[in-house]
Write a structure and sequence with these properties.
The protein has 127 residues and is α+β, with helices and mostly antiparallel strands. The protein has 4 helices and 4 strands; from the N terminus they run E-E-E-H-E-H-H-H.
């Protein structure tokens, strides 16, 4: 499995028109949706948001260790955190220092230094 792909068991239940999902391995791991598909989508977003700033992830529980309540079913939620970060990442302003001659050449060639730095960091960090 890819380093930034996670798979967590989750307890799924329905209450009237709503579907609920709890992810026991994550603190604050509760969400709901208007239907099953919406609940799964919301669970993917929940996991992405809870883990996007982390490099080490909580270990998923063994399914047999999860105590299901009446009316709950076990489902698995998979999230590619690298993809999630690319899609939803916010940007931050950083001051960097580069040699003046590189700055001049970059301006002449209309090179976006922030974009080049971002690409270099992704390659260096393998994300």
């Amino acid at each position: 499995m890819k380093k930034d792909r996670v798979l967590y068991p989750a307890a799924f239940s329905k209450d009237g028109d709503y579907s609920f999902i709890r992810v026991p391995d994550l603190q604050g791991g509760f969400t709901q949706g208007n239907d099953t598909l919406d609940a799964v989508t919301m669970a993917e977003d929940l996991i992405g948001n809870l883990l996007e700033d982390q490099s080490e992830y909580p270990k998923p529980s063994n399914p047999e260790d999860i105590k299901l309540e009446d009316g709950e079913s076990l489902v698995y939620i998979s999230v590619d955190l690298a993809e999630f970060r690319l899609k939803y990442s916010r940007t931050v302003r950083k001051n960097v220092t580069i040699p003046e001659y590189l700055n001049v050449i970059a301006k002449e060639r209309k090179i976006n230094v922030s974009q080049v730095l971002t690409e270099a960091l992704r390659a260096k960090l393998e994300v």
